Amino acid sequence: MENFHKDYLEFSGITPTEATPRKVIKECAPSDIFNKAGIAPEIYLEMMLTRNSLFHVYDFDCFRQAIIKIKEHYLNELEREYDFFMNMELGRDA
Description:
By secondary structure, this protein is mainly alpha-helical. Helices cover 70% and strands 0% of the residues. It has one domain.
């Protein structure tokens, strides 16, 4: 997810200071990408932390909680951002 954010920043003329996922997401907030797509920047930090929490998870309950969180909170946000980028690519307003 952070790669297309990094690409968007560079496309907008902004060079990220660090290419780490957390830094790229934080640098996207002032660039207005999240507002344009109608998404709260905090949701991306939450998604990243949820993704990170799944590394080396051997407890099914933790895994299940993460999957529920993804389904109930993150999928709609990702679809909204996908629509934003597709509309931008097609030259339409989001």
